[in-house]
Every structure is written in structure tokens, then in C-alpha cells.
Amino acid sequence: MADSLFLGLDVGTSAVKAILVSPAGAVTAAATAPLSLETPRPGWAEQDPETWWQASGTAIRRVLEQRTGARVAAVGISGQMHSSVFLDRAGAVIRPALLWCDGRTTAECREIVQRAGGEAHLREWVCNAALEGFTLPKVLWLRNHEPAAFARLATVLLAKDFIRLRLTGTVATEPSDASGTLMFDPAGLRWSGPMLDAVGLSRSLLPEVGGSSQVLGRVTDQAGALTGLAPGTPVVGGGADNACGAAGVGAITPGEAVSSWGTSGTVLAPTAEPRVDPGLRAHTFCHVAPGVWYVMGVVLSAGGAFAWYRDQVARDLADTDHPEARLVEEAASVPPGAEGVTFLPYLQGERTPHRDASLRAAFVGLSLAHSRAHMTRAVLEGACFALRDCLAVLEELGLGPACLLVTGGGARSAFIRRLQADIFGLPVTTVNREEGPAYGAALLAGVGAGAYPDLASAARCTLTREPPAPPDPEAHRAYQQVYERFRARLVAARA
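Above: the chain sequence. Below: its structure as C-alpha cells.
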């Protein structure tokens, strides 16, 4: 096992990332293949699952080319949650997948609540609210709006599980991703019969559920020829991107919390038992470690809001090196609170705590005295304030941490790390790995290959945390007032 490597594959929204990890935890090679997002109507978001497979093949080939002759002991896959892959009986894709950020299913969410007999049953059956991003509303949308396509439907898969199918020929999932479908009971670790019965769907549409570090298939000859992987290479269950991202920084122990800043943003707290927010503002999902769950608040546009702002307002930086760093440098020149400018980061609606797909973004408080630097700082602060809303829900549930792990784009920038510490009023820390969900998937592959006895051991062997950086008390007091302004302007915008 000492000369073996573990392949971690993450099927994201903007790219597929592949990494090779040694048993000591070193990332020995990395490659990405870009993906594009289709928005056929406002609020819609789709991707063709076959482009995920093409990009996966490209990323795997590229990463293996960097380590000629390397032995891959096992593969772990992570992927975007909730996105619906509709397959016919031959395993062919029926239509483009509806993604986690697709907001077209508001009517179907109301239908689910009505058919279930109220949200109390949703709490009991699936531990989560009926939200547009989840998979079940997408299946009902297909039934309601594209009945010919629904008549062909034989299997519903999630993004990473579609890649497993193409790699191994196995139709399977695992609890962390299944938890985000609204058809799975995270507390009972099984598909929810009451939920499926209420909405009139057959259990036969759904895959079998195995463990996140359990070998659920092996690379076929055909997939091996396409990717360069040796036929027979084991592929473990893997996990949802948020769960694998948390595993990839070692956040698998109750009492901890991690703030992730990707296209979306999350604040996630592991728990030793399934904990459900009475108001269903946060999500309760299974973790990739057995016997661990997590409660998570979700911001639909965190890094995504910053990327949108960069592309629309800072086009003059497009041909420069590191345009994001240039913008952050501008933002740092402006005092906390952006001298009265507030950004509400709701470009795609919002989940936690608002549960409102129709919520939209806005700049508030602009004047002739303000510059792009003020707007940039307001965008970064707005994303942090939305994440603080998520943290407040966790604190209400008794899950407030003493220190916060930060990961993703918000961890790579010293300024944004400081912004999070000062706005949250918590010490923040990072780990020595920045590969995100792909790294967590690789650790699961290592467990499945027998290199580590369990995920906790894998984390101890591979991850090191930086000393926590405390918040500045004066800056935190200043941000208390700015945060209240943010919340007041949100209330005014929704009135």
C-alpha cells in the first residue's frame, strides 16, 4: 500500500477535479476539466450529465499522465448534491439534469407539503423541508411538465452516482448524497416509504444504498480504456460535496464546525445523532463517517456572487493575472461596512434561513461618493453576513462552535479569512490541504482500500491545522451594527 495512490474525483458545477493522494496525505497530482452551466430560463440551471462523464474522463487521464506507472488503489467520488439525473431502462440520459441551484419547482414543493399532510411529516420522514434545490421536487416537475419524458424514467441518480455508473456499471448511492434527495430518511438510514407513498413514486426509481467508504463497484474495461484507470480498480461510495469537503478538512467530530465558501456557501456542524431544526431552516444530512450526521445552513450565492460581480463589474481586470486578488485588494482599502453600501447576495434565491427561491440580490445605499472598491467590499461582507445567518441557526440548536474551520475560496484569501473571523466573532483556522471535496473523496478511497482503519484515522494521518486566528474585538463590535443594517435592509427589500 505504501506505493499506492488514491484518486479523488469531485464533480462540481463549474469543473470536474481529479487528484492523486499518497497514504501520507500528499497530493501528488491534480487536474481539472471545465464545465458550463445552461440557464434556459431565469431561475433555471441545467447541465447534460454526459458532459460530466466527458470531463471526468479528461480530468482522470490528465492526472494519471502526471504520474506515469502509478498504481491507483481505489477511487472515491464526490459531487454536487441534489442534481437530478433521469435515466431510461437502457441507462441513457433522458434530458439535462436540473441542478441544485435550479429554482423552477416552487409549485412542486407546495405539492409535496400538501401530499405529506404538512411539514411535521417532512420533519419525521426526511428531516428536511421541501425546497426547490432538492431532488424530489425535480422528479415531480418532470412528471408534471414533461410527461413523455417521465414515462421513460427508470432510474434517478445524483451527479457522482452517474459517474460511478459510467465507471463501473453499478447503480448505487450512499447516505450522505441520498440525504439530499428528500426521499431518504437520514435518521433511519433508508429510503422513506411514507414520503414515496405520499407523492406516488416507486422505490424502483432509486438506487441501492451502500457505505461511503465501501467498495460499490469496479472500473470496467470500457471505462478503463477511456480514463486510463486499470480495469478492476475499486470505486467506493464516496459522498456529497459538502460532506466530502468537511471530511477533507477533518470536520467529522461533533462539536466542530466548518464554513465553506464555494459557488454556494455553507456552515456545517457534525452531530452524534440526527438533529432537526424545528423551523426546517437548516438541513439535516448523514455524514460520510458512519454514525455521524451534520446540520448545515446553506447560502446559494457566496463565491458565486463574487464571481458574478467580477464578471459583470470588473471586466477591465479580465485579462490581468489574478483578478479576484486585485478586487480583494481594492476591498481592503475600504473601511468595514463599506461606508454605508450593503449587498444582499440572493442572486438565486436563498435557503437558510429564508427558504425563498424568489428572493433576489440588491445593492443598497449607493451614492456618488462610492467606488467599485466599496461595492466589492459590500459583496464580500454580504456573503459573510448570509453565512452568519446560517451560524445563528446552528447556535440556536446548541451547535455553536468555539472555533470555525474555513475552507474553499474564503480560506485561500487572508483578507476573507479575517473578514469571517471579525463578522462571526470566532477564531478561524485552516488545514494544510485546499483540495476540498476531492480530498475527502480520496480519503474515503483510502479507507476502502484498507490504508486506514476508518475516516478519523485517515484525517489524523493526513491533516494538520493552523493555529486559530482570533477575531479583532473592535472590528467585531463594528460589524455587529453593520450586520443589523444588513438584516434591516433585507426586511425592507422583502416588504
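The two ends are 61 Å apart (CA to CA).
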